[in-house]
Design a protein that fits this description.
Elements lengths: L13 E4 L6 E4 L5 H4 L7 E3 L4 E8 L2 E8 L13 H10 L1 H14 L4 E4 L6
Length: 120
């Protein structure tokens, strides 16, 4: 069963240093506990779509998700700030990642929109 969201494999950051000879690749150490256990905590507010975007991975494949405003719950109102959207996402992160995993299992793809119906 593929996993999405916080259950994805860890992919360390790579820093390339230029040198006169062959390029050397240096793996940077994880900077937080989240990176050490393979999670991807990044998310961003999409003002045009009024939702929060995040990315998951199935092996080497990137899967993009948008969580619609209605799916973020009653904490979000018409005049909510970007911070309110991101805070609502963080508060429901585990439920969001479970819904993302279910959506991905039903229909493989690389772009999903999660609606309130996906959380029932």
């Amino acid at each position: 069963m593929p996993t999405i969201g916080i259950k994805m494999p860890f992919r360390p950051a790579v820093h390339r240093q230029s040198s006169p000879g062959p390029k050397s690749v240096q793996r940077l150490p994880p900077t937080s506990k989240d990176n050490r256990n393979g999670t991807n905590r990044s998310r961003s507010f999409d003002e045009a779509r009024k939702g929060v975007r995040f990315t998951g991975y199935d092996g080497m494949f990137e899967v993009r998700f948008l969580v619609e405003e209605a799916a973020l719950g009653s904490a979000i109102t018409q005049n909510s700030s970007e911070a309110a959207y991101l805070n609502a996402f963080d508060a429901a992160r585990s439920a969001i990642q479970e819904a993302a995993s279910r959506a991905y299992q039903h229909r493989r793809g690389n772009n999903f929109t999660l609606t309130a119906a996906d959380f029932r």
